[in-house]
User: Which sequence fits this backbone?
């Protein structure tokens, strides 16, 4: 369903906003 796809995408965006960005390299 398109609705479930939109909900899944929105949920993924929310999860991405919640957690700190891991893609950014952390200097050691």
Assistant:
């Amino acid at each position: 369903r398109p609705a479930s796809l939109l909900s899944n995408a929105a949920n993924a965006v929310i999860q991405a906003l919640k957690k700190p960005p891991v893609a950014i390299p952390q200097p050691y």
Q: What stands out?
A: The mean pLDDT is 80. Residues 2-18 form the longest helix (17 residues). The radius of gyration is 13 Å. DSSP finds one helix and no strands in the chain.
